[in-house]
Amino acid sequence: MSSFIYSDSNKRYHTLDYYYKNKYGCKIAKISLNLGLTCPNKDGTVGYGGCIYCSKLGSGEYGGDPVKPLKEQFESVKKVMIRKWPECKFIAYFQANTNTYGNLDYLVKNWEEAISYPNVVGINISTRPDSITDECYDYLEKLNKKTDLIVELGLQTIHDKTSKLINRCCSLETFNNCVKELNKRNIKVLVHIINGLPYETKEDMIETVKYLNKLDIWGIKIHMLHILKDTALEQLYNKEHFHVLDKKEYVDIVCDQLELLREEIVINRITGDPSIDDLVEPFWLTKKFCVLNDIDKEMVRRDSYQGIKKEA
Could you tell me if 194 and 270 are in contact, meaning their C-beta atoms sit under 8 angstroms apart? Predict the structure, then answer.
């Protein structure tokens, strides 16, 4: 039986909270920061309009306010976190849009500033696999020696047909090369995937996880596709009425995926929590804790845990 079920939260998968409490001995809170960057899939470098599920604000739309200075963004969220967890420490999370896509001097200035704040133990940088230059890789290698660095890569799916449909504009080969470059520098890789992408089958979603399980990745984020207002995805949904997973289907798929993932892979997220004001479908996703509880219950019902069915 996996040791992870003996964590304080009694989860049957390797949670991020479990990982950080074992590493630092306290609660670690992420503080989302926004540098006001764009994306090569929006400005014409590789595509226009972004991925079809992106809102006008882009990924990380609920992060910091890019109009405010970095320190002000940080302190604003920090106050909220300290009220919840007075003894917590922090991860500076550069979340919104593509956070290695910009002038490197500007990026370095802000990354270095963030890790200098009191009680910041690490930094998460969210980006695309096609948006890290050789010079940036070299700097990230240095940064990794100064602090707890995690680079988050948006993959979403390994399937080329789906990737084209969602206008991802980034190949699986590019993703693989990026993972290899980060692995060479001993930088932890966190991969973001989405379940329920249009026309993908359960087998397609399972194949994505099986593929990732064979790579040298530190962690994974599993999200459920949510359709937001005023997106290309909403237009596609209104036109074609593709199937949207119900909660039972989603829970079943996630539990199957967890059973396949190596137990050392850290599960950073296992559902999403979109704003109800922006949401078109599915509304069951707004009850985040119900989704999490149903996943827990299903793992108990199966008498299962992360990695029980991992492939050699």
Answer: no
Is 266 a member of any domain? yes
pTM of the model: 0.95
Q: Which amino acid is at 146?
A: K
What CATH number is associated with residue 188?
Answer: 3.20.20.70
Label residues 192-208 b or e (16+ Cβ within 10 Å = b). Answer: bbbbbbbebeeebbbeb
Task: Provide the 10 A C-beta neighbour count for residue 264.
Answer: 12
pLDDT in tens, 135-191: 999 999 999 999 999 999 999 999 999 999 999 999 999 999 999 999 999 999 999
d(CA 290, CA 282) in angstroms, rounded, equals: 14
The residue range of the domain holding 15 is 3-302
H/E segment holding residue 149: strand 148-156
**DSSP state letter for 43:** B
For the residues of 170-233, what is the DSSP string, one character each?
--HHHHHHHHHHHHHTT-EEEEEEEES-TT--HHHHHHHHHHHHTS--SEEEEEE--EETTSHH
Contact predicate 298/305, CB 8 Å? no
Assigned domain for 104 exists: yes
Query: Does residue 308 form part of some domain?
Result: no
**pLDDT tier at 4 (50, 70, 90 boundaries)?**
low
The sign one gets for the Cα dihedral 286, 292, 293, 295 is positive
Residue 9 in domain: yes
Tens of pLDDT, residues 21-40: 999 999 999 999 999 999 98
Q: Exposure of 217 by Cβ count < 10 A (0-12 exposed, 13-18 middle, 19+ buried)? A: buried
- Structural domain tally of the chain? 1
